[in-house]
């Protein structure tokens, strides 16, 4: 699989800066590279139209010892006070809550399936390209950095709304997908299941050099071995992804171990959509996982709407498939 050459050149420039001028300049270069090349196909839509749904879509701010973040919250109209599932959606580089909501159409699914959706926002002040900092060690641990903020937002929503604590889920795209993988590993007591779309495994990067290696599909000497999964995981990845090599999808499932049972492998074919190879497996401890390898798909949310950026309308409907997986896997001790 050929990785986007312009992206590689940008990352190589970052490595030169690391050696010549130090980590501050190199980090800025890496952030520019991630922002400029994280989603090479299709084009970014910077003017996201406002899509109206009958529920409420409001902006809030959360703060704790790790800092503060804004978030947007969608509460569907069609519910009568019963406890609802909660889905935490982590956007990719250069995106924001409105963009990600429009592209994934998760607010429409919230009305259809009866769930609350929260979109934490990564500001430019925390990362020049608004990427979640999945490659920084301080942002890969429980009760530290960005994981502490995302978990705090999750708990705040749970405290203020009727949320079913057995059905709290986390999902993300690209850098957001990598952060979703961190969240489900760091907080298995909070999230019942996770979705990683075009992302990377926990511990696959710890600095600029290892970030480059992981995104190319290579391994650095400092990469951590995948931990055994405690919660169900669904993974989507395009096999034509020129930004995050599709081998990272397999790395996400490596923690299930060589003894995991692959009990179903099928080809998902839908008229007018890309074909996917779908592998369903179960760890020796009985934890479920699904891998959707989407043939010919770029680095974009599968089946998403053109109202948001970085979506691939010809992919299978990742949002609907993800919600089916989530609702089939409530929290179990």
Task: Explain what the structure shows.
It is a single chain. With 333 residues, the protein is α/β, with parallel strands linked by helices. The chain has a single domain, classed as 3-Layer(aba) Sandwich (Rossmann fold). 30% of the residues lie in helices and 23% in strands. It contains 9 helices and 12 strands. The strands form 2 sheets. Strands 1-2-4-3-5-6-7-10-9-8 form a 10-stranded mixed β-sheet, sandwiched between helices. Helix 7 links the parallel strand 6 and strand 7 (233-238). The termini are far apart. The model is unreliable at 1-8 and 34-46 (pLDDT under 50).
CATH architecture verdict: 3-Layer(aba) Sandwich
Which term fits the overall shape?
globular
Order of helices and strands: HHEEEHHEHEHEHEHEEEEEH
Oligomer: single chain
**Class computed from helices, strands and strand pairing:** alpha/beta
Rg from Cα? 18 Å
CATH topology: Rossmann fold
CATH C-level: Alpha Beta
Largest sheet: 10 strands, mixed
According to DSSP, the number of beta strands is 12
Major sheet: arrangement of strands: 1-2-4-3-5-6-7-10-9-8
**What is the terminal-to-terminal distance?**
40 Å
Q: Strand-residue fraction?
A: 15-25%
């Amino acid at each position: 699989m050929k990785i986007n050459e312009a992206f590689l050149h940008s990352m190589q420039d970052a490595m030169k800066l690391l050696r010549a001028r130090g980590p501050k300049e190199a980090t800025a270069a890496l952030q520019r590279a991630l922002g400029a090349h994280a989603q090479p196909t299709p084009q970014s839509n910077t003017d996201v139209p406002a899509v109206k749904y009958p529920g409420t879509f409001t902006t809030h701010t959360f703060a704790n010892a790790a800092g503060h973040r804004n978030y947007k919250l969608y509460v569907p109209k069609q519910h009568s006070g019963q406890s609802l599932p909660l889905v935490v959606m982590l956007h990719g580089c250069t995106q924001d809550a409105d963009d990600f909501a429009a592209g994934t159409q998760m607010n429409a699914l919230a009305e259809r399936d009866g769930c609350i959706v929260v979109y934490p926002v990564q500001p430019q002040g925390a990362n020049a390209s608004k990427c979640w900092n999945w490659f920084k060690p301080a942002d890969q641990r429980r009760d530290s950095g960005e994981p502490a903020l995302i978990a705090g937002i999750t708990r705040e929503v749970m405290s203020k709304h009727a949320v079913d604590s057995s059905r709290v889920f986390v999902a993300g795209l690209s850098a957001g997908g990598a952060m979703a993988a961190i969240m489900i590993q760091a907080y298995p007591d909070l999230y019942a299941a996770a979705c990683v779309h075009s992302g990377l495994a926990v511990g696959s990067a710890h600095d600029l050099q290892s970030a480059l290696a992981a995104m190319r599909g290579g391994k650095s000497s400092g990469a951590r071995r995948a931990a055994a999964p405690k919660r169900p995981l669904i993974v989507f990845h395009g096999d034509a992804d020129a930004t995050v090599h599709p081998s990272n999808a397999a790395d996400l499932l490596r923690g299930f171990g060589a003894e995991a049972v692959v009990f179903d492998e099928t080809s998902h074919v839908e008229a007018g959509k890309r074909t996917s190879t779908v592998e369903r497996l179960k760890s020796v401890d009985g934890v479920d996982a699904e891998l959707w390898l989407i043939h010919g798909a770029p680095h974009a949310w599968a089946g998403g709407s053109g109202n948001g950026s970085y979506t691939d309308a010809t992919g299978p409907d990742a949002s609907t498939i993800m919600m089916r997986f989530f609702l089939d896997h409530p929290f179990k001790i």
